[in-house]
Amino acid sequence: MGKILVVDDEPHLRRILISNLKQEHHEVIEAAGVNDARGALAEHTFDAVITDQKMGDGEGLDVLAAAREADPNLSVLFLTAFATIELAVESMRRGAFDFITKPFVPEVLLASATRAMEHTRLVRENGRLRDTVVRLEGSSEISGRSLAIRQLREKIARVAPTNATVLVTGETGTGKELVARAIHRSSLRAEKTLIAVNCAAFTETLLESELFGHERGAFTGADRAREGVFEAAHEGTLFLDEAAEMSLAAQAKLLRVLTDGLITRLGSTKPRHTDVRLLVATNRDLKRRVEEGLFREDLYYRLAVVPLTVPPLRDHREDIPELCALLLAQAVRDLNTPPRRISAEAIRTLVSYDFPGNIRELRNLIERACILSAAEEITPENFPVSTPRSANGLAPRNSAEITPDQIAEMMPETHNLRDFLASLEKAVIQRALKITDGAQAEVARRLGMSRSDLSYKLGKQRIKDAPG
Ligand SMILES: Nc1ncnc2c1ncn2[C@@H]1O[C@H](COP(=O)(O)OP(=O)(O)OP(=O)(O)O)[C@@H](O)[C@H]1O
Ligand SMILES: [Mg+2]
Question: Does the predicted model carry a pTM greater than 0.90?
Answer without folding.
Answer: no
